[in-house]
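Morning F.,

Quick status update on the modeling queue. The single chain you submitted on Monday has been processed. Sequence for confirmation:
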Amino acid sequence: MFETLYKEQQHLIDLFGLLHDLQCTTLVISEEPASLEAYKTNRAEFLSDGIVHLYNIFHKGARVRAVEIVKMRDSAIMDAVCPLRIDRDGITVDSAHQIYDL
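Structure tokens below.
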């Protein structure tokens, strides 16, 4: 879509600047699989207000959905991976039963 990586990065910075000026909270949604072992950041994540990793991991003999808040600007966050449940009532995070303390 862009002629060079530089132009792509510049447009990304411009977009986040516009969203900031509009007082929007920015979250980045990525199709890259999140890993508990290795984490690689990129410019969009650096510029965003929040980073949330969703996992579908094998834990204690069962498949578990989990969430990790990596970054949430201006908020206190828990350094842990917590199980979550998705049902017709919405999303419930069980912070009392952490899967991994980070």
